[in-house]
Write a structure and sequence with these properties.
The chain has about 350 residues and is an alpha/beta fold. It has helices at about 70-85, 100-110, 110-115, 130-140, 155-160, 165-180, 200-205, 225-230, 235-240, 305-310, 315-330, 350-355; strands at about 40-45, 90, 120-125, 145-150, 180-190, 210-215, 245-250, 260-265, 270-275, 285-290, 295, 305. The structure holds S-adenosylmethionine and iron/sulfur cluster.
């Protein structure tokens, strides 16, 4: 069976689709610089039950339902990417677990794991509904989840998320582990908020068998606060950690902006995501699809391909594949982030693009 034969497999809970990828799907998905795209991040909703200060404005206007791709449309586009050689799918948002019918989408996409077309189906979540969904995620074939948690202090968590309950997220993490999921913790490094507790966050995560990844703030979308005040360079964090711990560089590369080290004293792995540096663009293997079906091939550029228009114009699978190829073909060489700029580098929020 070829990787795309299963597009037609009539065992998707969202219903069968005709098989018509055409010969065009038989070439790998590569951009104009020869980089092969093997990783799709799919935002399934712009909505969220939290309002993290660096991600969203306090009073967000969310998209009307008609603008957001249906579960069937999300499944169809994601499956087209799988047919083109995407080996990894990450579902994100907004908060993916607040999307109604989310588990139907997960179960449907998991058919590509069963055929071997996909290596990994995973999601990034704020963890608030993980206790409820972890067993179903594990049963569907999800093996790992990323959970965002920036602090171990309930009061600071409430402040950073504008109302979130840390205990609930931690219960979600425990439930995920109990269900057999491997959990990675994501924490945005913030100069005035959590900088001093980063070693505690690392100990907490590593003590539970979780990797922890620190993320530098990215200037995406207007969010009420000035992100330049909270920007914390991970180069400085690393230097600080090295003053009391032994950090050993790991050769692991995910084709993205993360670098990994092992901390000898905790035995765990620490990821450092420095999206403002350009040192990963030349091996970048990923693209993002917003919940409205816009394909962004670079997190920090405005380039965009409207796949929703293609879908809703009644495109055949071959036409959809051609539109995806057209979008990927013009993937920019690199991004254009500079935290020193007061204005966001791109107008869209992380919650729309999918972090
Ligand atoms: N709601 C889910 C969550 O919080 O994990 C998934 C979506 S969220 C947009 C994905 C990741 O993006 C989170 O780890 C979040 O901390 C991060 N994020 C959001 N806005 C960011 C920004 N401006 N800079 C850096 N990371 C950001
Ligand atoms: Fe919601 Fe995630 Fe953005 Fe926080 S980072 S507001 S949890 S989408």
């Amino acid at each position: 069976m070829t990787p795309y034969d299963d597009i037609a497999a009539p065992h998707s809970p969202l219903g069968p689709r005709p098989l018509d990828p055409g010969p065009v799907a038989r070439r790998a998905l590569a951009d104009g610089f020869g980089r092969t795209v093997t990783y799709l991040r799919l935002s399934v909703t712009d909505r969220c039950d939290l309002r993290c200060v660096y991600c969203m404005a306090e009073h967000m206007t969310f998209l009307p339902k008609a603008e957001v791709l249906t579960l069937e449309e999300l499944d169809r586009v994601a499956s087209a990417f799988v047919s083109l050689g995407a080996r990894k799918l990450r579902l994100t948002g907004g908060e993916p677990l607040v999307r109604k019918g989310m588990m139907d989408l997960v179960r449907s996409l998991a058919r590509h794991l069963k055929t071997g077309a996909l290596d990994e189906l995973t999601l990034t979540t704020n963890g608030t509904r993980l206790a409820e969904f972890a067993p179903e995620l594990a049963a569907a074939g999800v093996q790992r989840v990323n959970v965002s948690m920036d602090t171990l202090r309930p009061d600071l968590f409430r402040k950073l998320t504008r109302g979130g309950d840390l205990a609930r997220v931690q219960a979600g993490i425990a439930a995920a582990q109990a269900a057999g999921l491997s959990v990675k913790i994501n924490a945005v490094a913030l100069a005035d908020s959590n900088a001093r507790e980063i070693p505690d966050l690392i100990r907490w995560a590593h003590g539970r068998g979780c990797d922890l990844t620190l993320i530098e703030t990215m200037p995406m979308g207007e969010v009420d606060v000035d992100r330049t005040d909270e920007f914390l360079s991970l180069k400085d964090v690393r230097a600080e950690l090295e003053s009391f711990w032994t950090l050993e560089d790991l050769p692991l590369s995910t084709g993205g902006p993360a670098r990994y080290v092992r901390i000898a004293e905790t035995g765990g792995r620490l990821g450092l995501i420095t999206p403002l540096s350009h040192n990963f663009c030349e091996t970048c293997n990923r693209v993002r699809l917003t919940c409205t079906g816009t394909l962004h091939t670079c997190l920090g550029q405005e380039d965009a391909t409207d796949l929703r228009a293609v879908l809703r114009a009644g495109a055949s699978d071959a036409e959809l594949v051609a539109a995806i190829r057209g979008g990927v073909d013009v993937k920019p060489r690199g991004h254009d982030f500079q935290i020193a700029r007061r204005r966001p580098a791109v107008a869209r929020h992380m919650s729309t693009t999918g972090g």
